[in-house]
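Checked the freezer inventory, then went back to the computational side. Two predictions to log before the end of the day. The first one is the construct we discussed on Monday; recording sequence and tokens without edits.
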Amino acid sequence: MKALLIRHPQTEWNRAGRLQGRLDSPITPRGLAECDALITAIAASGLKPERVFSSPLGRAQQTALLIAERFHCALQLEAALQEQDFGEFEGRVLHEIRREYPLFAEDEHFQPPLGESLAQAVARVQAFLQRLPTQCTHEAVALVSHGQIIQGIIAQLMDNSLANMARYRHPNASYALLDIDGDACRVARWGIASHLLRLPDV
């Protein structure tokens, strides 16, 4: 099975540098253009998703619905694909959190108040990827998720560690290609974002 692991396009809070987590904000006009470019790039890649699994958060659902409509396939919500739960940090400006809580960006086991740690969030996505082949028999699927959790799962799959997660940054509306064979999952490509290069700032 091939899985396209997709980050949703730009939202208002992405643009403002606010941490979203389980909260939501609208997709921006640029985000809508990013989504169009993303879908065109997926179609041009030759991969045709036969089912779309999506985080239930609004920004991911909106993206997933457009993908499902384009490829005429079913959409299924999957709680495991939600963003890391940042608890009391959600809605706050990211650089202020990092200044106040240095461990937030440095320790995978740091747990925000009333939230979950990065390690916990990555573990739930790993568990979903392991059971995915038993949930469907499609040759290609799309998984719509979020920036922090995508960076974390790519780092874990590439390095078997979250220590160098920062190197695996995924821009809005970028994607990775995973090869899943039984309970083995391999990153074929990550950070695919060339489809965004010619977009105007809108």
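The second is the one RB wanted added to the comparison set:
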Amino acid sequence: MTTLEIPSARLHALTWGTSRPDAPVAVLLHGFPDIPQSWEPVALRLAEQGYRVVAPYMPGYHPSPPPRRGDLLEISDQLLELCRVLSPTRPVYLVGHDFGAVVSYVLMARAPERFRAGATLAVPHIRAFVRNGLLSPAQLRRSWYMGFFQLVPLANAVVPRGDYAFIRRLWRAWSPGYWLQEHHFAELRACFEASMPQPLAWYRPQSGVTGAALRDLPAVLGLLATPILVPTLYLHGEDDGCIGAEMMSGQRRCFAGDFEEEVLSSAGHFLQLEQPARVSARILSFFSRYPS
């Protein structure tokens, strides 16, 4: 694992695998509350199969600086620049988890020619999630943290309290069968200490909040009204305590290209850590249909 800085995209990243210029590039996007190190078990398996794997610290997660406006379109501009720098002439493979999945849908909708195939984890297509979630009292309860983050001074004070006990609580609730290792949590805590309150701002759509990634949600939903052309695999943990598997219902209509979805048993929200062999095998099998 090495580090990489892409000044034109204003991003830092971790990398695995070959540096051969002809190697296929896989870009892995983390979500909240997470860091790119969570991709390592999957990244190593992709690297073994010849991929050059790049997992950026998402905008606002130190050492990547905060975005200037902070909306999803700006964030996707940065990641499209990252893809251009990594692979100027060939499409890349894209994998996104949680908020990284949200950004992946935007990327594939905006620039389908830049992506050979995609895989998203733990957050269904946004139009399906919004449609299903608004009709689900259970999902509205699971999404309580999004509302809490709107209480800006309170949330900013509570999240770091007690050695980031709030973040530990989310991981335990969202992946009830998984125990976050202390060395991993130490890296996560260090990233949040250097980044706060920026990671919370992703969930704050009101104007005037720096980094409010959801501020342009209506425009993004309009963009995603057109079905995604990029071949896409979707994976969801059966025991996910953040987003219920029923939120997947009807998302197939949001994809015009090849699309597969699967619910993995014995996995929660952070399924790339809980079931890395199964997740990697499914991604590799799907991507192999679309050689670069």
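For RB: The chain has one domain: 2-287. The longest helix spans residues 72-86. Let me know if you want it refolded.
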